[in-house]
Amino acid sequence: MKKFNFNYVILIFLVAFNLRLGISSVPPIQTIIQESLRLSNFQVSLLVGIPVVCMGIFAFLVSKVQAKFGRQKSILWLLILLGISTIGRLFVTGYVFLLITTFSIGFAIAIIGPLLSGFIKEEFSEYSSILVGVYSFAMGVGSLIVSSFTKAITISVNWKLGLGIWGILTIIAAVIWQIFSPKESPRVQKKNIQLSKRKIRKKLF
């Protein structure tokens, strides 16, 4: 049995907290975005719909990503992608660029979520129920906070800042993850890669 490390509770909370910021920041101000960019109802609906679709489409890539890069590095780089994509919304000049950031956010979330769940279940199976609860709670808190403050930021400044400012928190989470996450030993990494490859073969055959 692995010794329970409270630092990992904080780590999981910080990563999970960021998994809904890029999605939940849109609904409170979607009317403002729609009017600013002169979008149709269908166009503005894609800003929320695309990340949800990505979660389904790219779920099959989780095992491949883990097998190629390892779980710790994958979560790190995907957090950086998520942060950069969110911050990129500060510089939106049109609808297409906003869609690109939306797709990137959806892709990153689609891979990070299962990787983080796998990290909890495989590394801390004895405490998985507690940590999965922390994971879910963190996403809920993230959604609540971003929903509460995005519109206020938008009214005070503009909607680009209302969407993009949350990426700073994600980059901070990536730095903390890199410093404090347990590094995979070559033996563990090889084991995880073999497990991932088996999962891929099962899905294919």
Can you give a write-up of this model?
It is a single chain. The chain is mainly alpha-helical and 205 residues long. Helix content is 80%, strand content 0%. The protein has 11 helices and no strands. Helix 4 packs parallel to helix 7 (95-123). The two termini are 34 Å apart. Mean pLDDT is 89; it is low at 199-205.
Helix fraction by DSSP (H/I, runs of at least 4): over 70%
Q: Order of helices and strands, N to C?
A: HHHHHHHHHHH
Head-to-tail CA distance between termini: 34 Å
Rg, rounded, reads: 18 Å
- For this structure, the quaternary state is single chain
Q: Indicate the structural class.
A: mainly alpha
Key terms:
205 residues; mainly alpha; 0% strand; globular
Outline:
The protein has 205 residues and is mostly helical. Helix content is 80%, strand content 0%. Residues 199-205 have low confidence and may be disordered.
Helix-strand layout with pairing:
Layout: H1 6-17, H2 21-24, H3 30-37, H4 41-57, H5 62-69, H6 71-87, H7 95-123, H8 128-156, H9 159-164, H10 167-180, H11 186-204
